[in-house]
Amino acid sequence: MIIGIGTDLCDISRIEKTLQRFGDRFLNKTYRHQEQQRAARRPAKQADRLAQMFAAKEACSKALGTGLRNGVWLTTMEVVPLPSGKPTLQLHGGALARLEALTPAGMVPHLDVSLTDESGLAHAMVVISAVPKEWKIERG
């Protein structure tokens, strides 16, 4: 059962300029520590990765139905790779509380995330589903 769908498009140059201007201040207000480390592994692609993650967080906030408010902040959503390499989101704090409130009894939430970048733009789509607890789905 689909709970929410969100999508976002992010201009990579905007992230690059913000990173150059504000550095760690921007990183710490927007990304969790592990996200920062993963993006920094490939300096030539750092802005691309950060833009993808930013788009994923915006898309997730839309799928949660709140946008970035009511305890759903950029740092309460974390883009993480599953063992297969497929991206997903781990939610914390207010974002996790909102997800739990949306999930019907007897079911567990499942987040599908798609990330891409092309021609200076990063795109993310997030689909939040509620599935029976018995289903075996790869989780982060």
TrEMBL record:
Gene Ontology MF, one: magnesium ion binding
Cofactor(s) needed: Mg(2+)
Reactions catalysed: apo-[ACP] + CoA = holo-[ACP] + adenosine 3',5'-bisphosphate + H(+)
Highest taxon of source: Bacteria
Location(s) in or outside the cell: Cytoplasm
Positions of Mg(2+) binding: D8, E58
Boundaries of every 4'-phosphopantetheinyl transferase domain copy: 4-96
Sorted UniProt keywords: Cytoplasm, Fatty acid biosynthesis, Fatty acid metabolism, Lipid biosynthesis, Lipid metabolism, Magnesium, Metal-binding, Transferase
Record-linked Pfam families: ACPS
EC number annotated for this UniProt entry: 2.7.8.7
InterPro entries reported for this sequence: 4-PPantetheinyl_Trfase_dom, 4-PPantetheinyl_Trfase_dom_sf, ACPS, Ppantetheine-prot_Trfase_dom
UniProt family annotation: Belongs to the P-Pant transferase superfamily. AcpS family.
Role summary: Transfers the 4'-phosphopantetheine moiety from coenzyme A to a Ser of acyl-carrier-protein.
Protein name per the record: Holo-[acyl-carrier-protein] synthase
Gene it is expressed from: acpS
